[in-house]
Amino acid sequence: MEIPSKYEPKKVEEHWCQYWEKNDFFTSKPDDREPYTIVIPPPNVTGVLHMGHMLNNTIQDVLIRKARLEGKNACWVPGMDHASIATEAKVVAKLKEEGISKAEISRETFIKHAWDWTDQYGGVILKQLRKLGASCDWKRTKFTMDDDMSASVIKVFVDLYNKDLIYKGNRMVNWDPEAKTTLSDEEVIYEERQGHLYYITYPIEGSDQKVTIATTRPETILGDTAICIHPNDERYHHLKGKNAIVPICNRVIPIITDEYVDLEFGTGCLKVTPAHDENDKNLGEKHGLEIIDIFNDDATLNSYGLHYEGKDRFVVRKEITKELEEKGFLVKTEPYTNKVGTSERTKAVIEPRLSDQWFLKMEDLAKPALKAVMETGEVKLFPDKFKNTYRHWMENIRDWNISRQLWWGQQIPAYYYGDGQNDFVVAETKARAFELAKSKRPDIQESDLKQDPDVLDTWFSSWLWPISVFGGILEPDNPEVNYYYPTNDLVTAPDILFFWVARMIVAGYEFRGERPYENVYLTGLVRDKQRRKMSKSLGNSPDALQLIENFGADGVRVGLLLSSAAGNDLLFDENLCQQGANFANKIWNAFRLVKGWEVADMDQPQAAKIGLKWYTARFQQVLAEVEDHFGKYRISDALMSMYKLVWEDFCSWLLEIVKPAYQQPIDRKTLDMVIALFEQNLKLLHPFMPFLTEEVWQHMKERSVEEALCIADWPKKLESDKKIIEQFDYAKEVIVGIRTIRKEKNIPNKDALKLMELTTSDTSGKLDAIVRKLGNIEEIETVGHTVDGALSFRVRSNEYFIPISGAIDVEAEIQKINEELKYTRGFLQSVQKKLSNKRFVDNAPPQVVELERKKAADATAKISTLEKSLASLS
């Protein structure tokens, strides 16, 4: 097989994607092996690959590929979320372009358009994940709107309703006026925004008196049904029991008293608008106030808005302020910063609104999930700093608003048989609902049943994901769910810890009586070098696919992971991807070097024998490190350990040790061992760099399908020879000392040198063959004294000398050493002066003092070496 001169990711990656999938390497079926299961956090069907997806899925792929190499039955289930709000918005926009309004077509027609859109545009991200190298079991791809997935959702709803855990109630909800649906509390993002506080006077009925209130939302005065004062506020005692008149609409409203009023805010008077504020609603219920909703579902004003009817709330805010000022009701305005709720999906400002919605009682359901993380440790969070956040949310959990005013999604299985709010039955099918309804109203016809038009929150389907992808809701005892569930690891971002992670744990204990997964690896957010969150609006988010095009999938994977510790934000820099691409090229060039050597049947050189023994020990040492890092979910640390092993130890040291002389062959034993160790390196690197490693592996020799790297065996962990690692570390320091002198004195590498050591240590002498080869040393001699006419360097406690007579200008060297001595003595004197200052030593941090002492010790040792070099030259 011809080896290309350079590694070209574009040519390689598509080939191996097809090869792996064609041979079903990623397909999993239950067998007698230990299962290792990951379910993908399903991206939105509307989604395209971004940096967060790249990071998240690379980590999952690393874990799944490692498990596959370890001989486990690795199953990574891919899929997509139907994303009710986002998808419906896309379909509505597409219809609008075609001149079609959602309001003008039937639900069935709209759903058909939604499926057409999904078939045409959906799932792009899964194709893109293939380019990244994601080794999912693509035959298992699931969609939250698949028939079986939807049936699972409906079955769960009915089950929870029958357990009296789901109820319908008129509540103040978070209304998204752009998506025209309610949102759960967790889908509302609060942002600090600069606004104004408007001071408005209300006339007192039957008098010339006025009362002033302060509000941030002057447009809502049209929905006011009371003014509230604190019962102990002496400023307003004279207003008790009186009525006020709302400006512009001239509605007469009562002045009520309640201790809820904050005496310090604004004027101490509160306007009460029960339809548009949660706290006002509570006051309204307590005092029996009228409820007036002034908004349409798109946050334009309705008929209660009088001459503002049909105008947007923010337009009305400006116009009503002007009208209030013109009519003498606006006293003043002040700048005011407050927190404004926005939709996590559409970014629209949320409108508090009273609405009939479906809710799931969460307090009791949350208890097993709280215990699993905080007490028993059945579910572990990595890093565990998120446990306190998890605890706070679970201990303060509120009922989950699970209904959405949309058409795309699982339609709520509640069927109305009458006009009353409670004239409904809940059933999995309309036929079953008809049976239940007949028991309540015998004369009813099936055609009289009207299904609730709302759909369920998207998260209400995805909270079942680890169970439903294996059919565990519809068939709780099927072989697949019994084998693969609970899953092993979940990799996701902290921002959906509540939306999804916590709810899956709740569902696991409620519907399976056990955890959905053992470990949750929480990645950080991907930020730019300035620590800004990456976003399209800032223009700081690179095109994920373009990165793969520029640097290759392996280069991008390495670049992402080298800077990504669990739970910590990743400061992304494209240079990291270049570093990954450079690493791929380094490995490829090392492979070409090894395969380019001619082989001969000859004795193995001592240097090669020692070098191979050392690298074998070093490999085992790093393998143990890697296993430890994986066990603690320190994925980036595991990669860094291997990066250093391959780049430095294998390429820079071992290959130099075993490399034959120019145009000379290598002995067969050494070559075989080098290739075997190279293959071990590829196994370790494969989870991180699947394309490059498979390409090199297949070029090593002819291999059958069954010998593909992605299904090879993970290296076995053996005892590492620590002694030879210590000896080699010492030898490296000696070689570095020799190379430093060569570089400083411009002595060519081809010129052999003589090396003298002051004493022979057990450590140094064992690896003389390595020192001779890599330092180009023709002779190593032990001496008992300083050597004249030689340059010296120190390795730990031993002194080394290299005679250089005739190789350099002695007079110039003496001058250079004297200059360096003068500088180093001056530096030592300044450090000693600092250390002799008792105030500094007593008050500076211990690590600072220790650093200064080390500087002094290093300077002293350097002065000693320079003095000896000077003496030998004089």
What does this structure look like?
By secondary structure, this protein is an alpha/beta fold. Among the domains are: 195-342, Isoleucyl-tRNA Synthetase, domain 2, CATH 3.90.740; 544-720, Isoleucyl-tRNA Synthetase, Domain 1 (Orthogonal Bundle); 725-873, no CATH class. The chain is 44% helix and 17% strand. Strands 6-5-14-16 form a four-stranded antiparallel sheet. Helix 18 (606-631) runs parallel beside helix 20 (668-685). The model has no long low-confidence stretch (mean pLDDT 91).
CATH H-level superfamily title of the domain at 544-720: Isoleucyl-tRNA Synthetase, Domain 1
Major β-sheet annotation: 4 strands, antiparallel
Strand order of the largest sheet: 6-5-14-16
What class do helices, strands and sheet pairing give?
alpha/beta
Compute the average pLDDT.
91
Shape: elongated
Q: Please report the total strand number as a whole number.
A: 31
Total count of helical runs of at least 4 residues? 27
End-to-end span in angstroms?
61 Å
Strand content: 15-25%
The CATH topology of the domain at 544-720, please?
Isoleucyl-tRNA Synthetase, Domain 1
Could you estimate the helical fraction of the residues in percent? 40-55%
